[in-house]
Amino acid sequence: MILTGNPKLNIICGHYGSGKTNVAVNLALDLRKRAKDLHILAADLDIVNPYFRTADAAEILRKADVEPLIPEFANTNVDIPSLPPKMMGLMRGDYADAVSILDVGGDDGAVVLGMYGASIRKTGYDMYYIINMYRPLTADPEDVYLCMRDIEAVSGLTCTKIINNSSLGAETTAADIADSVEYARECSRRCGLPLVCHTYCPEYAPDTPDVFRERGFGEEPLFAIENVTKRLF
Amino acid sequence: MAKKVLMKGNEAIAEAAISAGCLHFFGYPITPQTEISEYMAKRMPKVGGLCLQAESEVAAINMLMGAAATGSRAMTSSSSPGIALKSEGISYIAGCDLPCLIVNVQRGGPGLGGIQPSQSDYYQATRGVGHGDLRLIVLAPSSVQEMASLTAEAFDLADIYRMPAMLLADGALGQMMEPVDFEAFPKRETPEKTWATNGMGGKRARNIVNSLYIDPNVLENTVLERYERYALLEENEVKYEEYMTDDADIVLVAFGITARICKSAIGELREAGLKVGLLRPITLWPFPKKILGELADKTKAFLSVEMSMGQMVDDVRLAVNGKKPVHFFGRTGGVIPSVEEVIAETKKLAETL
Asked: How far apart are CA B296 and CA B300, in angstroms?
């Protein structure tokens, strides 16, 4: 269990390609399983990635009774970083009973949060920082820390938790994920943030829990996620 | 860097260029290739290189000409409309015999078109980029791994044949993420750049890089010498991938991302009992003419599959030279053809054989 419903605003940020969208969608689906009657919103705030984003998973979300909040021009032929007016309402607490998951663009794409900063701070939030050891610019915990500070500087918000989403896409093995445990712990120490979980995709690495036990990581929290990234072909 | 890393195609181009010794990048942002500039901006200062965001595509291509003239490995990148802006500079670079890399991560056109992927700059890359008698080496990657390996290869080929090279990718390849192994690709021997305008340490007469020739006969001879190098390239550097062509009644011809779609389609078509194969040109210029001529003797028909209204199909027809029918299927405007559509088109063609 990762999201508890308190706080209501849950922001997902991280380096480009760290897997934010996949984690955001899976967090929403996971929360739905445990909270049948809760109003859950999944908001796509990505203004920097033209092709892969939460909007791609709109159908999956709707089917699970999660309300997607999507920019008008997502996945069209234009590059217009506009966000719907509903988004402002969400940030300032108009949906008082709803729990929302906010998928933010990579790196300084988090600048979009700046304009909502005061409302978000007033409403209260968690900001999950997604890390992936197999992304070359965040392979080193020091770079992970610097990237986090960049995100915090442009967003005016502070990260509160870390999720280790280390992955090589469809080629990820359980060993690859186990190899990232030390890295994730070091990132957690360097950033001064609690490490919430390591993700794994049962489709690609079903034996991850076994490999974790064998390596003595049996106590580490694992979060099974489904790959919802859009297939282009 | 870990042995395998997860990268976007655009990032793989940038990292591969740096690994290949490229120390100068001149760019101007345009979707869907801006990650190349962003990656360069982060990495170049750490390796003692330069990433410069120019005031326009035109400025960037002329900066590239200057950097290449000094013998340094240098590159620029853009997407379709941006490449059109660069075309004058590319002609000057070809006229000066300067090796460098130009990356085009294609999007839909004409005009501003759109930001979704396309292959409709095939004519531009292989025929129409810049005025005059000129060729570019044109390499077409089909995976994120090849975005890296062909970037490195493009720099080597450019140096060996002393001419500009283009990596012709598309927005899908630029944006999608796949694991990349940077230790997997080979390096080639490249000649010393005795022509570089580097001052020669004041020890010998200076070199001059120029594309203006007062006497038409001198210009003609310069072009003839250049075409001798083009002929060597055509002789020695043609690259392609053959997939299940041995017994194929129908050969699909596709490059880049479209070849991946065709491979998936072939898997299902073979299961349905149809003998279908794929020829994937990796060098679009020089085009794999010879192998297509040979395949024309064994197969019954060709189907060129492209994300355009049909451009490479002209080269397929020239290579097949009327021996067998050559058909075309494509989607355009930023639409990626689906595996199902390719299957349907191939089945339709099979019924006519």
From this structure: 7
